[in-house]
Amino acid sequence: MTTVAKRYGISDVALRKQCRKLDIPLPKRSYGAKAQAGHRVEVPPLPKSEGPDKNVVVVSNPHRTALSDSKATNKLLFLPEEEREAVQRYCAGLIVPSEPLKFHGLVADTIQYHRARKESTKPPVNRVINVNVSDAQKERVYIFSSTIFVAFEHLGYSVAIEAPRSEQYYRYRHHIADNELHVGLGEDGVEIRIKEQRRRVEHKSAANDRYHGPSYGYEHTGELRFAIESYYAPRKNWRDTKTKKIEDQVGEIVIGVMEAIEVEKNLRLKREAERIEWEKRNACAYK
């Protein structure tokens, strides 16, 4: 009950109250313990009810602030209404845990690659995410990435590391820095990246220093940024602010990626239609 209640932004007590109004059977307190211990538990069938089949409850959830503003009504309009509402509920309930029970496959392979001492125990390079952050932020990026990857796959999208374009060249040596992380649906997709912001730092040299090196450098700030590498994406960036971390924007980010992929799909269909029209005009001209 606690797990399901989080998806809707309400307490387990409020969820129980709504279930009782709709005559939905509830599990007893011993249900979870028996199920985890492997004992057989009886699930009563849903009884026939003469009452309402749906209750609408308006709730306030701190995790869905990014989805509850006036702009939310203009999101995911390419989906049917019921599916759109289901996706928005799911995204509103997304929470980045402090410690995940299990990492996504790509994240687990990335961690294993950097921790393994022997080459024989390392995953292939094309399974390693290019994590462009400082060591202090890596664990945070791993947990956030795993959460958002699982969310994409739950919604029917794919997450994959695509081969770099430069591998077609002769004697190309695969580098992790060339790996591109893509989220896709069918033929369409966008590249995504998680970066750490950097700031310029001036180098102060001693008055008697004869070496004239670079006068400035860059250092990591600890602030993360999620980016969609698509020119036509409705929104391309989410970043840490003083009041909100990217973990608090995970639901909004998922929806933003979905909308960016839909834009790519529409552009592809438009190009295909223009190509077919061009071929028809040229065929008529030759006749």
Architecture overview:
The structure is a single chain. The chain is an alpha+beta fold and 287 residues long. Helix content is 36%, strand content 15%. It is built from 7 helices and 5 strands. The chain has a 5-stranded antiparallel sheet with strand order 1-2-3-4-5. Strand 4 (216-228) and strand 5 (237-239) form a beta hairpin. The protein is globular, with a radius of gyration of 25 Å.
Short note summarizing the structure:
This protein has 287 residues and is of the alpha+beta class. The chain contains seven helices and five strands; from the N terminus they run ααααααβββββα.
Which of globular, elongated, flat, extended, rod-shaped describes the shape? globular
- Would you count the extended β strands for me? 5
Strand content: 5-15%
- Alpha-carbon distance between the two ends: 70 Å
Rg value: 25 Å
N-to-C series of helices and strands: HHHHHHEEEEEH
List keywords for this structure.
7 helices, alpha+beta, globular, five-stranded antiparallel β-sheet, 287 residues
